[in-house]
Structures are given as C-alpha cells and as structure tokens.
C-alpha cells in the first residue's frame, strides 16, 4: 500500500471511529431499524403508487422498471465487482478496529468496499427523482432518505465512510445512466 493510500485509509478509519462513537441506546434502536432493508418496503410501495398515479400504468410501469434495473445494476457493481476486487474488510471484521468500535447489528459479509446500501439507495433516489420531479416535486426527499439510510451503515458499524461515499457515487452514476437509457427507450419505442 502506498503512503497516500495508507493515509486515506487511516483517515477513513479515524472518521469511522468518531462517527460510530456518536451513539446512544435509543439511537441504536432507531438506526438498527433504519438500516434494515425491509423497513422500507412501505416506502417502495408508496413510490410505485405515486408513479402509477402520476404517469398511468404504461408509462409508470416503465419508470418502475427503469428504477428497479438501476438498483439491481448498482448492487451488482458494488457487491459483484467491487467488494470481491478490493477485499476491504468491513470495520466489524477488521481486527484493528472491531475491538474499539460500537456494534449495533450483525456484521454481514466480510468485505464492505463499496457499500451496496449506499449505491442502491442513491441509484433509486436519482432515478425516481429525475423521472418524476415534474409531476411529483416532493421526490427530492429521496436524497435525504438515501443519506440517512447510507449513514446508518456507518453508525451500526458495518461500513467505513469511504465505502458509503464511493457507493453513493456509483449509485448516482448508475441511476443517472438508467434515466438516460429510459429517455432513449421512450423516444425510440414508446408511443402513447
């Protein structure tokens, strides 16, 4: 590891320990709930309903498909490509960190770079916001949701901040790409 990379990793670990150390028993419960992926099923159902209401079944269905494909692609990039390539241990699996960190939940897989929670939530946020913002201007709340959801992964001890940052960037790029693909598809093949 080069000196520059070592310095970045060390700074990331120090920031993790500071953020992870900001805890209280009541917030542990809240963050455990926030980080649990099935907590958000009602939100996804609401987003699908808003999409169908705003765009109708046909076009709304295409938007939902585009968002789902963006989320799946973001997950495959982080979980299927990045984690096996970089092999960066999660903080809760890292022997140099796990003895001094605050554990809130199960650790998950061995590797955490980059965060799939961050990539999928930001892919969802940018795609749904971009595709519905004209008809449902309140969709901007999805970015706040994605930030809180991604941060919860640091709080509960399963990701470093850099895992979250890179995962979020992957999600934004993938989500934006699928928005562009959606518009290309709409222009070429969709006729109301």
From TrEMBL:
Residue ranges spanning the membrane: these are: 29-50, 62-81, 110-132, 139-158, 164-186
Keywords recorded for this protein, A-Z: Membrane, Transmembrane, Transmembrane helix
Record-given protein name: Phosphatase PAP2 family protein
Quick check: keyword Cell membrane in the entry?
Answer: no
Lineage top rank: taxon: Bacteria
Domain Phosphatidic acid phosphatase type 2/haloperoxidase: from-to ranges: 63-179
Q: Which organism is it from?
A: Dyadobacter endophyticus
Membrane as UniProt keyword = yes
Database matches in Gene3D superfamilies: Phosphatidic acid phosphatase type 2/haloperoxidase (1.20.144.10)
